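Ops channel
N.P.: pipeline sanity check, posting one input/output pair.
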């Protein structure tokens, strides 16, 4: 029978610690941005290098994350020659956590519990360390493609400096606010966007991305529901529904009648963690409300990252592990265990002609 390793032994042995985190990582929540971006290594955190590599120079103006309009003096802008933001989390084990770990370990030694019990207890802590920074990048990615901006709060980055980036994506306004159900004509707005960029710039959108809140505004418009009905086929019957038309019915009109791109709903949720650093306090839809991203293809940007300084020059007294370019360090000092994570990276959205944003509410 293999010897049971205690938590103290695991965190002191680099090989065992790395194996523990690696085996857990397959069960961690996966970020969404890698599905729509191309990864790119950068030698340094120097932002000048990043922009040169990608051919994009973010504007250093402070903007509102909801309207995309400039705001003066509310946040410090990201300098053109600055550094990539660094995200991370820190968790300290107190007597409360150690008492719980000791209790589980005694139960394992006595044959009352399985070693998996200890892994289950530690899982949320390690997931928060490894995934938390990636979730921040997720949030910035979705803000970038749905609003054309990336807003980094002071609490988001290890530097503690709030910055706003305006990626200068093309934007257009709907003729009428989509929440005005009586007067708005969302299908016409989408048709006009598609044909304008096709005829004037040779850009062919492949889909219209929006969240379900924006789609529900479209559904409720008189111009939409009075002209489109839905049929739902069951095993033995067909149900006719003349209320809010379904996504499938609307897409049949867009693709089949208008001969333009279909709508795709993206309701990916971003978790906000509680003060304990492990439990989830709330969740919210990452894609901005009242925005439609008119996109070309499935690759919407580049994920640029660089290794942490300690990954280049490790401390001999610290145990490290890397999970998807997130460095996790574990250190015991003066009887206190501290675990920290660090990631330097940012998603830079695709060129202007690949993402155009339709604002359905000013």
């Amino acid at each position: 029978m293999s010897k049971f390793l205690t938590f103290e032994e695991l965190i002191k042995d680099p090989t065992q610690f790395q194996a523990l985190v690696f085996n857990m990582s397959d069960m961690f929540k996966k970020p969404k941005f890698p599905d729509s971006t191309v990864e790119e290594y950068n030698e340094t955190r120097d932002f000048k290098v990043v922009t040169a590599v990608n051919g994009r120079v973010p504007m250093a103006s402070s903007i509102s994350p909801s309207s995309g309009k400039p705001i003066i003096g509310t946040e410090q802008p990201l300098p053109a020659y600055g550094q990539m933001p660094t995200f991370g989390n820190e968790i300290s084990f107190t007597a409360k956590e150690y008492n719980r770990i000791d209790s589980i370990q005694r139960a394992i030694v006595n044959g009352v519990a399985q070693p998996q019990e200890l892994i289950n207890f530690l899982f949320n802590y390690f997931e928060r360390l490894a995934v938390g920074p990636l979730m921040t990048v997720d949030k910035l990615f979705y803000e970038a493609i749905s609003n054309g901006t990336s807003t980094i709060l002071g609490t988001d980055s290890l530097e503690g400096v709030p910055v706003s980036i305006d990626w200068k994506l093309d934007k257009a306004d709907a003729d009428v606010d989509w929440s005005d159900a009586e007067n708005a004509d969302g299908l016409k707005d989408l048709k006009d966007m598609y044909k304008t960029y096709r005829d004037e710039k040779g850009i062919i959108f492949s889909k219209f991305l929006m969240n379900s809140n924006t789609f529900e505004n479209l559904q409720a418009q008189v111009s939409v529901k009075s002209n489109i009905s839905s049929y739902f086929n069951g095993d033995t019957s067909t149900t006719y529904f003349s209320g809010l038309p379904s996504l499938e019915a609307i897409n049949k009109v867009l693709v089949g009648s208008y001969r333009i791109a279909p709508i795709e709903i993206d309701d990916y949720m971003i978790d906000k963690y509680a003060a304990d650093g492990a439990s989830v306090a709330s969740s919210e839809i990452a894609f901005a409300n009242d925005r439609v991203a008119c996109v070309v293809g499935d690759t919407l940007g580049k994920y640029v990252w660089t290794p942490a300084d300690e990954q280049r020059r490790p401390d001999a007294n610290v145990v490290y592990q890397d999970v998807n370019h997130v460095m996790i360090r574990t250190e015991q000092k003066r009887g206190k265990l501290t675990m920290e994570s660090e990631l330097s990276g940012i998603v830079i959205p695709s060129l202007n002609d690949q993402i155009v944003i339709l604002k359905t509410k000013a």
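N.P.: looks fine end to end. Residues 175 and 360 are 8 Å apart (CA to CA).
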